[in-house]
Specification:
- 2 copies of one chain form a homodimer.
- By secondary structure, chain A is an alpha/beta fold.
- The first copy, chain A, folds into 2 domains: about 130 residues, Up-down Bundle (Four Helix Bundle (Hemerythrin (Met), subunit A)), CATH 1.20.120.420; about 220 residues, Rossmann fold, CATH 3.40.50.10470.
- The first copy, chain A, is built from 12 helices and 18 strands.
- In chain A, the strands form 5 sheets. Chain A has a 7-stranded mixed β-sheet, sandwiched between helices. A 4-stranded mixed β-sheet of chain A has the order 13-10-11-16, covered by helices on one side. A 3-stranded antiparallel β-sheet of chain A has the order 3-4-5.
- In chain A, a hairpin with a 7-residue loop joins strand 3 and strand 4.
- In chain A, helix 4 packs antiparallel against helix 5.
- Chain A starts with a strand and ends in a 6-residue tail after the last helix.
- At the A-B interface, helix 7, strand 8, helix 8, helix 9 and strand 14 of A face helix 7, strand 8, helix 8, helix 9 and strand 14 of B.
Chain lengths: ~375, ~375
């Protein structure tokens, strides 16, 4: 997608020096657009943990490039030990996102057929680039599928805007390009369908306010920032036509882990007869898991993310402010699980399906076992 | 309730000079505890609008004292015109809270029987004090009723903590004393029942983080601050035994207007079989309205409350930071309506009832008409 008119992905190999991975520094957005260099697997682990890079697809692509960087660092003697440690370190950075382990395993598989360290480095480079390219392509394709859902709503209210509510950032910033939840929105906007997006702020890290609002603004998609609390009220008053979110992991039976609070929006959508749509590249499916509430690991992050808020001061500095008493304890779970019964449709690059095992496996017959 | 060991109400007449109303300045909490003087009805309108004072019961009590201050300002000639204007100005400050219009009408009724301006000033003073005293007494009594609900849960899990989730601040800071949602919690805590409160941050104005966390901390009630997004996840995992909130207006049939986001928690409570309890003094009922979603006016406040967050910096200054891009538009509805079908019980000073017209009118037979 374009930033100030210039096309970007969220992660790429430096053109002149392929020992350097470059990423958009998402900790600086929306107040500054900066590119960060990632020089080692340890750097990449930090970037994933501290959310310099974040979002289901981008975490996977980052893990791919992290494994590639590891292959450049690994000694000739002990190459495989070094890579196994790198894999473990990367997997430990964020527990919920399915794409992370998926990408690490794919990288291990790719280098396993290498004959020499040099060969394996080349294989790692190719695999990391392929993961990123596929992520972008899958998001593009799921956007085309999702466009049909938005077009169908637009047809039912000619001349009126299609109002879409989204939670967190499942935009192109969360992937390599296009995004998952945003891909159908961008496709609809580019096709001339009038769309307007209600952007959930998404406490505690405000990815909606800082990232989704920013990228929709860059692309010129009309949008309005709201508190996470507001979505139910909007739905009760006919101001939402569709909820669309991304996801960090979808189980075999269609349970959806996504940013904390998604479950509440899914409940409100159901209560008001509004479609609750979840968009994902196939790399986000975890076919090994059934009941998502019981089995998907939910990351708990630091209390300081709840107790403090960062933003731009009136002097254009960045400041962090404390919003509660000094002694107030806080807890901070990063995700919740929306049961499949509340999900109207899943959109992936292979098409659209209902959120149940039979429908999912009809799109992914190789997972039937 | 006590602050640093000294008992306070949220509003009172200055002991030495009864032309001065004093209030706890809630814009300064939790980082400073300051008392503000309110000297005129115009002052009081500002204090209600800018939320120096806020919360269903306290808005009512403030309107009462505002009318009293107006009676001190009103000229001998044109006394009633002045009072009618004061009534209109006060009613216009916040559209959703039922207590506001209720208190203003009660004040007008009280002074209507006066024979001279001096007599009417005395009647206004007495009525304002009575409204405040009754608010405190009603909260105390509903706390005793609500205590029984908490005690019943405690009996089913002996030796374990009763986990209660609340949204916004319906604490003693929102009333004259004791609070509505918090009154049963304080009563249970004081009775030795182990309770723990999940405190919703309550964006955009963070009344949970800044007020509820503060007052629970002052009283020593164990509590944990969470993002508004977290409650559904907690309920899915058995970590909430009861949701209890206050309300700004309850219709004849039991629909509940409360801080935006309450509806989402009520949906999650229903989905997880958890009681959703709403506590209110009878002054918060609006027996003239039926369907709350269609009829309760919902205040829309400024976008800046969504776009900016205030808090304490590391240097102990207070700073306001912008959390979205410079050009991002925002909308900010203050309340939503939880349909009666999602409300398990209403608690008021007369007792506990189901949220339907027959049950409510059984407690308030004079409203049967």
């Amino acid at each position: 997608m374009k930033v100030n008119g210039k096309p970007y992905r969220t992660i790429w190999l430096n053109e002149g020096n392929d020992r350097v991975v470059q990423v958009i520094d998402q900790l600086k957005l929306p107040h500054a657009f900066e590119i960060a260099d990632v020089l080692s697997v340890a750097d990449m682990c930090r970037a994933i943990s501290n959310m310099t890079v974040r979002g289901a697809g981008l975490i996977g692509a980052s893990a791919g490039f992290g494994m590639y960087l590891a292959s450049r660092e690994a000694p000739e003697q002990g190459f495989h030990d070094f890579m196994r440690q790198a894999a473990a370190d990367l997997k430990a950075t964020r527990p919920t996102a399915a794409n992370l382990a998926w990408a690490v395993e794919r990288m291990l598989g790719a280098i396993a057929v290498g004959t020499t360290p040099a060969h394996m480095r080349q294989l790692a480079r190719d695999a990391a680039v392929a993961i990123a390219d596929e992520d972008a392509e899958h998001c593009w394709r799921l956007g085309e599928h999702g466009l049909a859902l938005i077009a169908a709503i637009a047809q039912r209210k000619p001349g009126q805007c299609v109002n879409i509510l989204t939670h967190c950032n499942a935009g192109w910033l969360a992937f390599v390009d296009f995004g998952s939840a945003t891909a159908p929105i961008y496709a609809a906007h580019d096709a001339g369908i009038p769309v307007h997006v209600w952007v959930d702020e998404t406490r505690p890290r405000n990815q909606g306010a800082s990232l989704t609002a920013w990228e929709l603004g860059q692309h010129g998609v009309p949008h309005t920032l709201i508190a996470d609390n507001a979505g139910g009220h909007l739905m009760q008053h006919g101001l939402v036509d569709m909820v669309i979110t991304g996801t960090d992991r979808v189980t075999r039976n269609g349970d959806v882990a996504n940013k904390i609070g998604t479950y509440l929006k899914a409940l409100a959508a159901r209560d008001n007869g509004i479609p609750m749509v979840v968009a994902l590249p196939s790399s986000t499916f975890d076919f090994t898991l059934g009941d998502g509430i019981a089995s998907i690991p939910i990351e708990e992050r630091g209390a300081e993310e709840v107790r403090f808020v960062s933003g731009k001061t009136s002097h254009s500095g960045i400041e962090t402010v404390q919003i509660c008493p000094d002694t107030t304890p806080a807890r901070n779970w990063g995700f919740d699980v929306t049961p499949a019964r509340l999900v109207t449709k899943l959109i992936c690059e292979r098409g659209i399906c209902d959120a149940n095992e039979a429908a999912i496996l009809a799109l992914f017959p190789q997972e039937r076992e």
